[in-house]
Design brief:
It is a single chain. The protein is mostly beta strands and about 260 residues long. It has one domain: Jelly Rolls (Sandwich). Helices cover about 10% and strands about 40% of the residues. Strands 1, 3, 4, 5, 7, 12, 13, 14 and 16 form a 9-stranded antiparallel β-sheet that branches. A 7-stranded antiparallel β-sheet has the order 2-6-15-8-9-10-11. A hairpin with a 4-residue loop joins β3 and β4. The longest helix is centred in the first third of the chain and has 18 residues. It is globular, with a radius of gyration of 19 Å.
Length: about 260
């Protein structure tokens, strides 16, 4: 019994050590940003996400799914009423930096405003290439469901998905202002991922037991960024077409590293 208590305490100390506020020398330095001010995509950085299985069921490249203001981009989710040649019932817009811009260690911030609808699932997330899911890991900086007044922030790995382990905890929720912009962020370190919403830390996912069983693949390969509107699925539930169209509006993306 005493041995188990000691072991639990030791593990807890390791988790606290990995997840305490980082105090590395130097301050965060902004090294790249995207402000979406040109009223068109910078195709040296971004591509439109192509249609595929699962989460990308309704992705398309139709211009009306990518609406620009003077300073933002809106990624739409709509009923398909304009493209009879396309058999998809719904259409959604999404962009990614895959094969163009990658990130490894540092802090990613995204300022975004979300609309709500039953069955609507906007997401901001990161994946590596060419490692297949979930072995390379997935960093979910923000996922929003339906009309919730909070978002999910999650770390996915072989350890959490295939082995179904949740020690340490893989996700947390964070409250948002549903009627305004919110800032979502993740700090990527060799030994942990630390998530924030509006400057408040929501969860840290640390490397434990030396990352055994694919628990922490995030230290090895760079990740690209994905920002997309999604509709439907077992998690978000059925789509209410009467609540469409909706969109996610992105003001800016920023990437910082330690000086």
């Amino acid at each position: 019994m005493m041995k188990n208590i000691f072991l639990s305490g030791f593990i807890g100390l390791l988790l606290f050590s990995a997840c305490q506020q980082k105090k590395e020398q130097g301050e965060w330095k902004l090294v790249w940003e995207e402000n979406f001010n040109e009223q068109k995509l910078d195709t040296t950085i971004w591509s439109m996400i192509p249609r595929g299985g699962g989460w990308a069921t309704y992705m398309a490249s139709y211009p009306e799914l990518y609406q620009f203001t003077d300073t933002t981009i809106r990624l739409m989710a709509v009923r398909n009423t304009e493209h009879p040649e396309d058999t998809a019932t719904y259409l959604t817009g999404g962009i990614w930096s895959r094969y163009k811009k990658e990130f490894k260690f540092g802090r990613i911030e995204i300022r975004a405003k979300l609309q709500s609808a039953q069955g609507y699932w906007p997401a901001i997330w990161m994946c590596p290439d060419p490692i297949p899911y979930p072995y390379g890991g997935e960093i979910d900086i923000m996922e929003h469901l339906n009309h919730d007044d909070f978002v999910y922030q999650t770390s996915h790995t072989h350890y959490t998905i295939n082995l179904q382990r949740n020690d340490p905890p893989k996700y947390a929720t964070a409250p948002i202002n549903k009627d305004d912009y919110n800032i979502y962020a993740v700090e990527m370190y060799p030994d942990s991922l630390v998530y924030f919403t509006n400057g408040k830390r929501s969860i840290c996912y640390p490397k434990v037991n030396n990352g055994k069983d694919g628990q922490f693949p995030f230290a090895y390969d760079p990740f690209h960024l994905r920002i997309d509107s999604q509709l439907g699925g077992s998690w978000v539930g059925p789509i209410d077409s009467t609540q469409l169209p909706v969109y996610m509006e992105i003001d800016w993306v920023r990437y910082y590293v330690k000086e």
